[in-house]
Specification:
Number of helices of chain A: 9
Largest interface: A-B, 68 and 69 residues
Structural class of chain A: alpha+beta
Organism (chains A, B): Natrinema altunense (strain JCM 12890 / CGMCC 1.3731 / AJ2)
Protein name (chains A, B): Transcriptional regulator, TrmB
InterPro entries (chains A, B): TrmB-like, Tscrpt_reg_TrmB_N, WH-like_DNA-bd_sf, WH_DNA-bd_sf
CATH class of the largest domain in chain A: Alpha Beta
CATH topology of the largest domain in chain A: Endonuclease, Chain A
Helix content of chain A: 40-55%
CATH architecture of the largest domain in chain A: 2-Layer Sandwich
Oligomer: homodimer
Distance between the termini of chain A: 67 Å
Order of helices and strands of chain A: HHEHHEEHEHEHEHEEEEH
Strand content of chain A: 15-25%
Pfam families (chains A, B): TrmB
Number of strands of chain A: 10
Chain lengths: 251, 251
DNA sequence: GCCGCGTTTGTAGGATCGTAACAACAGTAT
DNA sequence: ATACTGTTGTTACGATCCTACAAACGCGGC
């Protein structure tokens, strides 16, 4: 079995199929249609198991059955299968989150507790950054060495906030980053203070108003890990610390 | 635990979470945020298990962790969770079907084998009907007693085919059905021949050109079950049989 | 000491995986 | 006609893995 096929089977398992179901479904697409024996011959699924597996695939709407002797199976088209799985997914998601929304309680006091949260994984850090940025009302500082950490959603949010009258400044020593914002209206571009050594492992920094901050580093298993805090004493102190050291450098 | 909650947990399991993961996620939304003990107190998840479950939820991007003592957990917002799960789903689906598309073989001879296929479930019958209808090039006959079996997608496809110059005739004795097509251009409405007794269990009939036919019945576990055939001798013979009996009645 | 936190280990149950035996049937040779 | 052969569809049964669930442990703070 090829590595690609193993990967595809894994993916199908993530979508809720068993490995047998994935193998039978794939085999039937190879064959266009076929009997239990046909399927068993080109997979490692025992023939005796094909019948029940096919039945369960029929229940999921992924194949059709010809009641003959021998029984023949026919997979539905890829487009139809995708649509079927997708609508099933949407339905389940609706059921699940409907309830969560009904029971979730209001965040009391808008995050006034002294909390510093950890976020692992680049996409997650990205989401959280956008979240923090879009709550800014007066000023934003965004800094990074790495152009690839200026994702489209970040860029969009910065531009949107700038347009809303928020003072946005992007801090980077790298030209690649600086150029990304050269054309954006209302965005000030600055260089980091000279005294700050550029740690190779630093990721991005996000400051929104005087009460929200996010700081990420690269490395570790997840690629990027961030800590962030919003509305806490921690946040404002951290922000002051960071910015005070810059002010001093200027003087 | 309420029935709603059980349903929601089931739904989360369908989305790939374990029941513990679902319970912890829901509990954290109830609390807005909390420690392992907080969660254990309002669920039947043992406190000692909350830590590992939360870790796995963090990997999935469904909650964030505060590294303190005690450890505090914070769920991501419903919108963020939905988006995360959805993009994960899309990614997996892409991985899975990309491979299937690469290996699927061309249907040789365009369904010339003598095959009659079975389809169970109303939605599936609907899909197959639309599929057959949209391959019609010259004429279409669509019949049903039941207005609810004239779904929007059927209606759309019939109108689209009629617009493409296909001769479309809808056959029904029910006014509710007849009225649905009264306004559609290019669609002829007919009554079934008087000699044909209207079996209570009949569902829909779809005929496309002289080579594709689908026939469904209501009843059984799945609500609606259909047989269909395309390009086979079976199909053309069946079509002739059905239509011949009508012709005779006319004479 | 005492108590709560976080970790680790162990067991029971369920679902999937994988093997094997079985009756029913069709075709062939005797 | 009978016996033999091979296939089909069904059923039963261990092996294996993961989840659910329970209990114990080391640790640090009060």
């Amino acid at each position: 079995m090829s590595g690609d096929e193993t990967a595809a089977i894994d993916a199908f398992e993530q979508l809720g199929l068993t490995s047998y179901e994935a193998k039978v479904f794939i085999a039937l697409h190879r064959l266009s249609a076929g009997t239990a024996r046909d399927v068993a011959d080109i997979t490692d699924v025992p023939r005796s198991q094909v019948y029940s597996v096919a039945e369960s695939l029929e229940d999921r709407g992924l194949l059709e059955v010809q009641q003959s002797n021998p029984i023949r199976y026919r997979p539905v088209s890829v487009e139809e299968a995708r649509e079927t799985l997708r609508s099933q997914f949407e339905r389940e998601q609706e059921r699940a989150f409907e309830y969560v929304e009904a029971v979730e309680s209001e965040p009391e006091g808008e995050e006034t507790q002294e909390n510093i949260w950890t976020v692992r994984g680049r996409d997650r850090v990205d989401d959280r950054s956008v979240d923090i940025l879009s709550q800014a009302e007066h000023r934003i500082v965004f800094g990074t060495r790495l152009p690839e950490l200026v994702t489209p959603s970040i860029e969009r949010t910065l531009a949107e906030r700038a347009a809303a009258g928020v003072s946005v400044s992007v801090v980077s020593g790298r030209d690649a980053v600086r150029e990304q914002f050269a054309a954006v209206d209302g965005v000030t571009i600055e260089r980091p203070p000279a005294h700050r050594t550029d740690d190779q492992r630093s990721g991005r920094i996000v400051i929104a108003d005087d009460d929200s901050i996010l700081l990420s580093v690269r490395g570790g298993e997840d690629g990027e890990t961030a800590i962030w805090s919003s509305g806490s004493l921690f946040a404002s102190v951290l922000i002051q610390l960071i910015e005070a050291s810059d002010e001093m450098a200027v003087e």
